[in-house]
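Notes, p. 3: input format for complexes.
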Amino acid sequence: MNELLARRKLTETCKMLYDRNLTVSAGGNMSVRLGEDRFLITPSGRNKGLLNPEDMVLINSKGRAVSDGKPSIEHKFHLALYAANPDVGAVVHCHPLHCVALAVSGRSIRCGLTPEGVILLGDAPLIGYFTPGSKELVEAVRSNSGSRAMLLERHGAITQGRDLEEAFNRMEELEFQAKLQFLVGDAEDLPAKEIAKLRKM
Ligand SMILES: [Zn+2]
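Output follows (201 residues plus zinc ion):
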């Protein structure tokens, strides 16, 4: 994808996340892979509903900015996911309310309540609490890099996908499943046999 188009698409994704209450104020960070050593990421400390294409920051695989602007402090876990997964083209991290409510109370998201949860998310591990921006958080994310989605204790959620649309869809589905979990109480998961069948789809 060329850089100009990627800047536009990343801006649109940020606006959708913000408009659907999947992230609030300056929370979260989103990125897209442009090439082997080029990634576009949201700038540090800005409201995701108010970004323009030119605000996005181009970084290399070492995390150094190669355009104007200061990249998000969390760029290192984005780079760790890209390095671990050659087929991943986009990473979304934000703080959706119901995901955070689960993550604050140390509970995982149950992805087996509906077929969509199983198909889109698979499983979504809960990663322990580490200070935002810390090396420890990067290592914890790296060791769960095989999951499409994950919760960060007392913090938020991360999804990855082949492109921005897939990473966005997974975040939207993750928050849907978190909200559903609060609404249905202790309703049972789909039968294990059905979950296994759906996972193969
Ligand atoms: Zn965060």
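The mean pLDDT is 95.
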